[in-house]
Structure to design on (196 residues):
């Protein structure tokens, strides 16, 4: 009995190690989202190939939106940084809440959001997140044309760092391995209880 339990635990730890190693990077991820982790979030404007001027906005849960920056080269220069501080974010968000970013295209009046295609009027994914483009940053790229344009996601590019995570960094295999380990432990405890 103890030997069987040890084999199961060893197998689950091996699976957990492999799962964790397999989630070190994922790039780029279409339809990914950003989640607040409880501290400051810094956003830096990057070079783009956009013909239109767009505003990066944070769409808040109270039905307001917050202007962050214009895309380069049509608005803010490359390297412009904006920091969303903890005290301000904490008035609107809880740790783990999605930070719903999107772009408002001033030339066309269209708004496109990070996340699933269902969020956008044209039913197309307009944002991507790359966690390997720049060490320690998340690179967020948008398409600014209705219908998705050329889908290279470089019309609006912003790098994020600080207290923010993306769905691309969530390790589903590792989470499943932990659940499996808990189930093995529960089964072992149940068997011990039946013998007593």
């Amino acid at each position: 009995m103890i030997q069987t339990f040890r084999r199961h635990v060893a197998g689950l730890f091996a699976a957990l190690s492999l799962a964790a190693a397999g989630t070190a990077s994922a790039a780029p991820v279409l339809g990914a989202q950003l989640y607040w982790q409880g501290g400051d979030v810094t956003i830096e404007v990057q070079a783009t190939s956009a013909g239109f001027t767009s505003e990066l906005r944070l769409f808040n849960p109270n039905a307001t939106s917050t202007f962050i920056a214009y895309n380069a080269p049509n608005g803010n220069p490359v390297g412009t940084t904006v920091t969303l501080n903890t005290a301000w974010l904490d008035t609107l968000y809880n740790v783990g809440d999605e930070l719903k970013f999107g772009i408002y295209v001033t030339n066309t009046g269209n708004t496109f959001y990070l996340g699933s295609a269902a969020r956008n009027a044209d039913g197309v994914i307009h944002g991507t997140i790359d966690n390997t483009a720049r060490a320690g940053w998340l690179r967020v790229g948008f398409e600014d044309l209705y219908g998705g344009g050329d889908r290279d996601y470089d019309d609006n590019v912003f790098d994020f760092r600080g207290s923010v995570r993306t769905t691309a960094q969530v390790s589903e295999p590792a989470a499943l391995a932990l659940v499996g380990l808990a189930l093995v432990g529960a089964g072992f405890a149940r068997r011990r209880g039946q013998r007593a």
In short: Residues 13 and 150 are 44 Å apart (CA to CA). The beta strands are 29-30, 34-45, 54-59, 65-70, 81-84, 98-105, 111-113, 127-130, 138-142, 156-166. Residues 2-22+172-195 form one domain.
